[in-house]
């Protein structure tokens, strides 16, 4: 892993701000309205992998908006990749010698079953100050914020020196093949700004902005299949070596196992900064872990918090189980899927070998069945990016702490990092941790996040493209 330095200075929490209020900036009502309108139209298009996938309709919706906003049709491409596609829109810069800036997102969403939701997930609703619907956070609103901001920049007469390429993949939530194809096509990019997710954090009690955490690294996604086979037999004649029982014992060992806690320069900088913002026991644990990743008390506290355990090392958890072939027969086969999020610096083969040791049973075979994933090092702590993201946040929330972080999940950034393109996640949306329903039920985002989100992008995109 590259050696990087924590270059950020962490400021004290500013005076309390009204919920989602931002600094004295020039309003952009046309861009704000367009971002919301486009997001609602995109949410209504069920862009879920499988039968009825409407990702192509999302691409056409976005393309139409971009052409209406001044982009040339010849500079917009929708390229098929397997069962999906990716989309690019190119804004040519004035200096062709400069490598392009890629503004990255994805058009697909995770499946959502209407019967489980309070509101239909694919019927967008604005209610009580929130935009509800699948993709409200992950990540159709972010997509439309980027589109509306680029159109606003063109409206204002901005001309980038560096070519800007807006790039949306079509299967980030599943196979991620279109993201890999995009990275292959744009492997000469100078930098990637991925606007996926919601990187701003609101206080749970007050709803006021607490801090902004951009990401320069992510963990490697991996799936491992555990398999136990057995001759089986009649259920009236039980035998000692039961495939389901053996698999259950292996899963129990994995559940109890903790991979070695560790840190890198990015996560250390995150814990040092976040510790100043988190009161009480959790904040103390963050500070202690940053100073000593072997601190057992700090490890215990952070491991007990679902939002923290993934930041201190590799995690592996059972996600699917299947076994047996008949109600009145001994199982001949039992399988389980173990999903791992691997800390940077470890290969999938290393974790597979470690899992096999944890299972401690030669009858349980561990096989890597990962699809659409590649291990990558962290992106460097680029001073130009750090300055740009800090300036953009402080433009709407003066003095708000801005800290680096590592994503526990996977994103299309990994494909660009595999081509050695510096790639960063910085979504301008702010939400409460308790209201983070990405991939979950009743996904929502505060409508009040739209205007400062546009202001953020209108600052950072020009800075990175000049």
Report the helical percentage: 25-40%
Strand content: 15-25%
Output mean pLDDT. 92
Q: What is the name of the CATH architecture of the largest domain?
A: 3-Layer(aba) Sandwich
How far apart are the termini? 29 Å
Low-pLDDT runs: 1-21
Adjacency order of strands in the biggest sheet: 1-2-6-3-7-17
What coarse outline follows from CA principal-axis ratios? Answer: globular
Question: Which CATH C-level class of the largest domain is it?
Answer: Alpha Beta
Helix count, per DSSP? 13
What's the β-strand tally?
A: 19
Rg calculated over all Cα atoms: 23 Å
Keywords: Hydrolase, Metal-binding, Protease, Signal, Zinc
Organism: Komagataeibacter europaeus
GO molecular function, one term: metal ion binding
InterPro entries: Bact_exopeptidase_dim_dom, Pept_M20A, Peptidase_M20, Peptidase_M20_dimer
Fold and architecture overview:
By secondary structure, the protein is α/β, with parallel strands linked by helices. It has two domains: 281 residues, Aminopeptidase; 114 residues, Alpha-Beta Plaits. The protein contains 13 helices and 19 strands. The strands form five sheets. The chain has a six-stranded mixed beta sheet with strand order 1-2-6-3-7-17, with helices on both faces. It has a four-stranded mixed beta sheet with strand order 16-9-8-18. The chain has a four-stranded antiparallel beta sheet with strand order 12-14-10-15, covered by helices on one side. Strand 8 and strand 9 form a beta hairpin. Helix 1 packs antiparallel against helix 3. The chain is globular, with a radius of gyration of 23 Å. The two termini are 29 Å apart. The N terminus is likely disordered. InterPro entries: Bact_exopeptidase_dim_dom, Pept_M20A, Peptidase_M20, Peptidase_M20_dimer. One of its GO terms (biological process) is proteolysis. This is Succinyl-diaminopimelate desuccinylase. Its EC number is 3.5.1.18. It is an enzyme of class 3 (hydrolase).
